[in-house]
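Task 17 of the worksheet. Students: predict the tertiary structure of the chain below and write it out as structure tokens. Keep your answer in the requested format; marks are given for formatting as well as content.
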Amino acid sequence: MQAIADLQELLLHMQPELDPGRYAFVTLPAGFPLDPAHVVASIREPEGLSVIIPEQVAVELGLPVAFTAAWITLTVHSDLSAVGLTAAFSQALAQAGISCNVVAGVCHDHLFVPVGQARAAMDVLRAAQAADGIHVSDSA
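Model answer:
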């Protein structure tokens, strides 16, 4: 499928899907051996390697969890150069009082929201996908 860059098309076809698991944001100690198969996402920071892994893996390895999240994938194939999608859904979530950490993959956007607000986040995203859910200004 061709990547979509048009904001209206992206919003119309977001199709959020909630993963049934719980995911932990952790910082790995230097040299910590972690099976790469457990890593959902990672980024190197001055403080160490931050990773998102299944919560149960973090617990089993005794890693301190900074944040436990639910994982929502926007299944639309978003173009990495598209403008406004993150702003649109994050604004809708913010208006509902839901924090969101976003990881962009090559094909999809992945949202990590507080576990206790996962269903509410899905409701907000589905409303945003509806014709009157998010209004995108032509002047933006």
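Marker's comment: Helices lie at 7-12, 55-61, 85-95, 118-129. The longest strand covers residues 67-74.
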